[in-house]
Model the fold of this input.
Amino acid sequence: MKRRWLLVVLGAYLLGTVFVEGGESSSVPGWTEELYSGVRPSVVVVKQVGEHGESVSVGTGFAVRGGLVATCFHVIGEGQRIMLELPDGRETPVTEITAWDEVHDMALLKPLAASLEPLPLADENAKPGAPVMAVGNPRGLRGSVTTGILSADREIDGHRMLQLAIPIELGNSGGPLLNQRGEVLGMLTYKSAITDNLGFATPIAQLKHLRKHSKPVSITRWMGLNALDTNVWTTAYGGSWRSVRGAITASCQGEAGTGRTICWQRQSPANDHNVCRVWIRFDSATGGAGIAFGNRSSDRHGGVFVSEGRIWLVEFESDRMLDWDVIESTEASGWESGEWNELRIQQTSDRIRASLNGHELLVAGASETNAFERVGLLKLGRSHPHYRGFKTAAIQPAQDQSDAIRHLVEYAVEIQESVESPNGDELRLENLEAAARQLEHYAERIRLAQTKLAQHRVAEELHELVAKKGFDTARAALLASQLAAPDEPAGLAWEEWQRALGSLKQSAKGKKSQLPDILEHFFFEQLGWRVPATERVEHLDYSLTAVWDRQRVAPELLKLLSLSAAQAINLPVANSKHLHPEDSDPRKELITILRSLVAPQMAQPNIEALPVLETIIKLDPNPVRERFARGWIRFREGDHEAWQEDWAWVRSVTPEHVTRSWVEACLAELHTDVPAWRIGLQNAHLANR
Done:
């Protein structure tokens, strides 16, 4: 993204100050009073509403022709429910995003029930020096007004903007900028970071253009909302279950007292399927979420869920409120609140086992309540959980442990048994503390080795994959995401992609004549993804693990996925009208994705970025920045021979003045002084740092 001239500008969220409630201000000239009284009934408060009904952010909007409300794109955000507060204090939901322009920060909304007088749009450009008035809701103060002058007409990052001598404050984004005739000249968008009495507005010509190029999207699709497939799921004990961006969510409490509600899978698990797995994301302090299971012949069922930092196994004896027993509970070690966590339960003839993020935490005796004749999603209390990747499977054979790991586990068990033995009181506490610290040290080293080994295997798989002709581009995109963020649930992302491909194949059957439109419908309608404007693309838009929640996809990632999808349905890529994946070079697109994923770390590269950097170095014939960054990391880690090798190569292909600036930035960050000749800078002396 270009470096904005907006060192002058604080950002697209800060608008409007010194606005006075009710439209009165000591500095407001007399001509504004009558104008304000006519404009105020057309101005509304625009609210983003969170999943718990809370107000996430507040801005301003104004009525235009066609029963629409205009506001800034950043006011409505992405994927949120939107409410309008009308001038009389009533609220009405937005039912449709009629049009939006992320680059010029504008959007048109259609409210459910509102009869607002539209404001006229100016037909001519205002001249600098003209008096102007702004109406908005700064810091939640409804119907505030201020005046000033139009001080300049500027171009910022290639876009025309109106510069205003007006104080602007948080909450006024999207408000109208009016001339003395009450015509809208522009929409307030930016506040200056240099002085309070300076702001910016987008010229109204952009809004006129937007109205001519509308692309209506219902609010349910904007939020990624869909009803549950009743052929797959059935609910019990009330509550509200739905699909949001491919995940299943539960809101509203179910039965009184416990908040229990269950979404049962209609199809019974196969006879040999005695493992049930789901990924869950929620705040465990608000209630519980997990897996329900039981037999079909009675109301009794079991449940394993996470709540209040613990994992619980309970038995619900009947439909009656609070008629349930706690069988076992323990600390939910490894649970990450607000992140995706994998909950897995395994049932055998005499045991039920529960694991969280791959670690077995709970083991208890089985009963008839623990039967796997039916399984489903369980919610308790006031939680608003999200579920993904629910499935059942057969038990996989356990892999043999290495001798070293087995000995370490046996050592820990031996210590525990010694403490719990009749002679445990004779053990010296300081010896136990030393043993605990030693085991913690071993555990930390094992975790680091595990992460390093996992990334090494991912990198190897990626190199082998890309070496093949016609490689699976979606798999390559996943591995790139996994390299950059090894802690993210890559397995879940791959399951989501495979599930989506299965749905695509089903929808493509018998529709050969419609195949040219299939990919566009798949990505933009079925999955609800959106390609952000070029200058608004963020590094996470390149991640296949992040796209499922964000619903934003970078063009390069979309091309790789469209190639994979086209291959899945035997669609010649040249027949895809808009995506044009045939124009892409998969290897080049993959390198761009890798670079974009690691971009936030390039200013001060660290050891975590090394797997991505080394992968780019192997794939790209001219990895100048990556070789320098790797040398930087090696320099920090004390690998002197290796960093000199990297920087020597960089110097051989890069002008000296470029190398000098990179090296000086590196040494400044490291607070290190190295003689100039050591880093290959001629006639240079770096001051002690």
Notes: Residues 429-466 form the longest helix (38 residues).
